[in-house]
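for the recovery benchmark. tokens below, seq after
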């Protein structure tokens, strides 16, 4: 009589370090938020809170909170992608972070956000598409910080 251990059907949940993704995403969201505050605080004060009908009036703390939450969620996705494609070096994770920054900029900030803000009637609704250079810079910094912090956090999480 044969016995089965059942190990074949189990997924290796330890291979995805989602905690490092969250920490990296939060760090990237905070650094990106600081750049946004320095370069165009209206994005954090009105546009991001407007996504969820939390502005107007302008509210930078709420916008920053929502933005950091988005950063954490996108960090989890980054961790999943990193694990799925089997990156084995810090350099490759940094490159993936930068690529992830470009993807989030193009898809979420440049295409989805203008449509979403227009749909909810935000006063901060940008034109569609909104391929703005400052936003690209912010998202590249997000990806760079995400990748770097993810690498560091992998060792202690």
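predicted aa per position
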């Amino acid at each position: 009589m044969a016995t089965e251990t059942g190990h074949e059907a189990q997924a290796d949940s330890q291979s995805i370090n989602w905690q490092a993704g969250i920490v990296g995403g939060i760090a990237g969201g905070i650094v990106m938020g600081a750049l946004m505050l320095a370069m165009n605080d209206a994005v954090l004060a009105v546009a991001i809170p407007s996504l969820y009908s939390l502005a107007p009036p302008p509210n930078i703390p709420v916008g920053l909170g929502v933005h950091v939450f988005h950063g954490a969620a996108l960090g989890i996705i980054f961790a999943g992608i990193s694990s799925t494609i089997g990156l084995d070096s810090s350099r490759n994770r940094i490159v993936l972070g930068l690529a992830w920054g470009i993807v989030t900029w193009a898809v979420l900030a440049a295409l989805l956000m203008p449509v979403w803000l227009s749909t909810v009637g935000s006063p901060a609704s940008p034109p569609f598409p909104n391929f703005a250079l400052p936003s690209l810079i912010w998202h590249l910094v997000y990806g760079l910080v995400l990748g770097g912090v993810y690498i560091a956090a992998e060792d202690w999480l």
